Amino acid sequence: MNAQLVLLALCTGLGLGFLLAAVRAAATAAALWARGRRVMGWVTPRKAADRRRGGLVMFSDHLGRDLVLDPGRCGPFYGVPPVGDNVPVVYVRERPTQARLWTSRHLLAPSFGWFLSAPLAFGAGAVMAG
Fold this sequence. Notes:
The protein is of the alpha+beta class. Helix content is 45%, strand content 24%.
């Protein structure tokens, strides 16, 4: 087989995979916006042994259980306020453990990243094939 054809097929497949992941992330954000339950959470500090920046978000679900949402290493980038402040949280009623912050950056950042990766993969395939 021609090496350029293999690289083109690989980059096209990778680009389609990235595009599918972007559409899935955007659909998840739209579903949370349409039928998610919104509650207020409060930002609590991490344990002293945890070196990651930002705090954890505690919130109560519709059954009164206290749950913890870890915004991850990108928490400050996603717009998590400082410790002690309140932040809106959204979750699907059947799955409160898969909650997200109700900020545009936290809901749309995954789909934005995938949408940026897809044309890069397609472009790399076009450059290698041409």
